[in-house]
Amino acid sequence: MFTGIVEETGYVKSFKKQSDGALLTVGCRKVLDGTKTGDSICTNGVCLTVSEIFKDGFSAMLSNETLEVSDFSDVKPNDKLNLERALRLQDRLGGHIVSGHIDCLGKIVSINKMSDFYDIETEIPHEMSKYVVYKGSIALDGISLTVADVKDNIFRVSIIPHTFNNTVLKDLSKGDAVNIETDILSKYVEKLLLFRNNKSEKSNISLEFLKENGFV
After folding, report:
1. Distance between CA atoms of 84 and 44, rounded to whole angstroms?
2. Which residues make beta-bridge pairs with 8?
3. How far is residue 183 from each of residues 4, 109, 187, 216, measured CA to CA in Å?
4. How far apart are CA 58 and CA 52, in angstroms?
5. CA nearest 31: which of 97, 82, 71?
6. Which helix (H) or strand (E) holds 51?
7. How confident is the chain (216 residues) per 10-residue block, as mean pLDDT?
8. How far is residue 76's CA from residue 153's CA, in Å, rounded to a whole number?
């Protein structure tokens, strides 16, 4: 489990595709502190298990499923990566609950520099737009962000200079693919509503009730 607060920007040292996935080697420093083989590191939003540690990086295996739902199938050496170690229970939860399980790929529609902030618009598949709500949380390449606006399947986030300059966001351009993880709470709400409807149980909880009380 992660918070979406990026600790370090690493880079791809090597990426080797295999018959059953791929082997990714990441160059980094900070996130190695206290990390051991078998630990999880959120890498551009994807939860990866450390298989080997070096003095200047780590390696991890990626399954074919991960390659299909993320943008890792297109990475190349020296590509920048957002890195975050797994959440410890005694830490402050500065962002939101991020599982590291990517829902879909998004596509950058626009990046606009305002006076201080940066506005980024991202397009996602229509079927995923139901999980994105105004002022809700979303993870973009593993970064915990707040939705500033949403229209159909395009959402906008406002990025403070610190986040923009210390993550891979500064390297993105229009048309680039990004890893998207929607807020897991919305999925639980949807599952509960579907379960109640399928069971034909009478309930006071409805989509309108959730909207009125700020849950969606």
Report:
1. 9
2. 83
3. 11, 21, 7, 11
4. 6
5. 82
6. strand 46-54
7. 95 93 96 96 97 96 93 94 91 84 96 93 96 94 95 95 94 96 87 73 63 65
8. 29
